Amino acid sequence: MRSAQAADRKTPFNIALLVAVLLVPAVLGSSQTIFNDGDVSWHIATGQWIIDHRAIPHTDPFSFTWYGRPWVPIEWLAEVIYASAYRLAGYAGVAALVTAALMALHATVFLNASRWVRVSLLPIVAMDFALIPMLSARPHVLTWPLLAFWIWLMLRAREQDRAPPLIAAALMTVWANLHGGFVFGLAIAAAFGLEALVDSTDRPRAFRQWLIFGTACALACLVNGNGLEGALHPLRFTQLQMLPLIDEWKPSSLRQTPFFFAVLAMTLALIFWRRPRLPWVRWLLLAAMLGLALLQTRHQAMLAIVAAMILPEGFAAGAESASAVDPLSRRIALAGAAFLVAVRTFLPLQPTDNEANPWKLIAKVPPELRSQPVLNGYSMGGPLILSGIRPYIDGRGDMYGDELVVGYSRIAHGDAALFGDAVRRWNIRWAILPNDSKLITVIARSPEWRLVARDKVGVIYARD
Fold first, then answer.
1. Which residue range forms the structural domain that includes residue 224?
2. What is the full per-residue pLDDT of the chain (464 aa) written as tens digits?
3. Among candidates 92, 85, 74, 96, which has minimal Cα distance to 51?
4. CB atoms < 10 A from the CB of 394, how many?
5. How far apart are CA 443 and CA 422, in angstroms?
6. Do 323 and 456 share a domain, yes or no?
7. Is 5 contained in some domain?
8. How many domains does the chain have?
9. Do 42 and 116 fall into the same domain?
10. What is the DSSP letter of 20?
11. Number of helices and strands in the chain (H, E)
């Protein structure tokens, strides 16, 4: 009788596991919206360049405005992974890679939450509402499961009153070659080290262990394809004046990401109602992450993952609320994940034709113009690179710098004088722009320019 009751209690848990780890990631990873970012294309093109040349580029090989000038591709490893998936199965392969990353993220969050709360799906649902606006096939998505696993390592270390094993520092090497967000991995480790120093009964031992681990993590970050510059570049990027021009670097707003603010409001209400118990250092870490998320939209995803990993322990109702994933459920979930990723790889998938994927419009570019200097829409720069056309600008704003990006922004907003200066300086021969570009009005009024092609995405003009 007790065995039957135990089986009944496990069934909903197993279903929740399969929904969280298999179904939800498969749906999110198969969405065409993960390609609605022009940066996806130049990341793939960079990975292809690295594979073909068996080297990491340290000067720009793609644009005509910055060709041959310094470039620090700190996300080279993620770009190689994306390019490999693209060569294997096109956009379907890229979607399969995103799906696998989401499955790993969801599994980590679910298994951690299931130790503390009965409703293990709740942290995942709340997290996903914040992640979806940031979900695109770009390097940061590959670091999401790494971030969750990193926090899990810190939590386990604190439970055992010790520093994480030194071998865990090697994850920082992987992280530093995937994305510049590795600096937050160092900050998170520092926060848990502070907690250990404050709460440990043997502070000298805690200080010694966490200092050694922190030093190992810092040294591990230096093992990257760009050396010391690769470790410092994320910090230098934050000093650029152009950041307010990029949507994801702008302050969070209710209009832009309403679901994030809805989840935030509900989470804060739940915290005030249930009064979860956590060490004050973890509250400080969550508050710092919240401040970053409000300051810049791109950090909303990091806050969501950190909160989904840290808060469940505070809401624990007692030992009876914890559940263990039985071995059969683990095997079923692992086999199901492998099957769904394989299916996603071989099911055709093509991005929707839009400003970030203007493939039909690019196909209309006359052959004689493809090798000529072009003024392009910002999101169209990546697709031009993937098509073998050198753009004026693309999503690598940190490489171009303030002067070019800020000047381009003024041109894109219809500054006719700056546009004329750019045409003369770079000998611009044609333009490819989205239909909502204010520059179209300036070009259309000039007798030097003629319309070559137009579709629902944008226009092509040639200069006579």
1. 10-345
2. 334 444 444 445 578 888 889 999 999 999 999 999 999 999 999 999 999 999 999 999 999 999 999 999 999 999 999 999 999 999 999 999 999 999 999 999 999 998 898 888 899 999 999 999 999 999 999 999 999 999 999 999 999 999 999 999 999 999 999 999 999 999 999 999 999 999 988 999 999 999 999 999 999 999 999 999 888 888 887 777 888 888 888 999 999 999 999 999 999 999 999 999 999 999 999 999 999 999 999 999 999 999 999 999 999 854 444 456 677 777 888 898 999 999 999 999 999 999 999 999 999 999 999 999 999 999 999 999 999 999 999 999 999 999 899 999 999 999 999 999 999 999 999 999 999 999 999 999 999 999 999 999 999 999 98
3. 85
4. 28
5. 13
6. no
7. no
8. 2
9. yes
10. I
11. 19, 4
Which residue type is seen at 1?
M
Indicate if 325 and 385 belong to the same structural domain.
Answer: no
Q: 215 with 80, same domain?
A: yes
The vertex-412 CA angle with 64 and 246, nearest 5°, equals: 85
Residue appearing with tokens 């999503």 = 395
Q: Last residue of some domain: 345, 372, 388?
A: 345
d(CA 290, CA 309): 15
Beta strands in 365-415 (DSSP E): 374-376
